[in-house]
């Protein structure tokens, strides 16, 4: 006879909330992942994959926004260079995350953890790209296009936080323990 376990949405959300405590930005983690509670259930490896997918979706959105930030009102050469660097860095981040998500597609199982080294490398590389963008924007001294730089900075900062959370969920004890066995 098969045993069925039925989880309440509250129990599933509690699993996500507890898992998110291992991240640097637990509120952002919970807010972005709780909508996937029924898919995640109480499976740490699905939670990690969901975090990676949320991060990729955000990276694509940020990439489009950053690419569009250079248009409109004239910017100083310094502002234009900072935005251009961000376009390249966030684009690289999207490429790295896309490769990672493609690598992780398929059934979730033991194979997910065989690939953890790749996951850590690609997510860390994406975070480095986002930090590179932030460094250029943090140099200050912007005039004219400063409001665009502020908006881009806020979006890239949120993306970096999502990326950091995804890395924490992949590195954290919950996903690794999922397949340690007895």
From TrEMBL:
CDD domains membership: PMEI-like_3
Recorded superkingdom: Eukaryota
UniProt keyword Transmembrane helix present: no
Keywords: Signal
Domain Pectinesterase inhibitor: start-end pairs: 11-169
Pfam families (alphabetical): PMEI
SMART domains, sorted: PMEI
Record-level Gene Ontology MF annotations: enzyme inhibitor activity
Alphabetical list of InterPro entries matching this protein: Invertase/methylesterase_inhib, Pectinesterase_inhib_dom, PME_Inhibitor
Name of the protein this chain belongs to: Pectinesterase inhibitor domain-containing protein
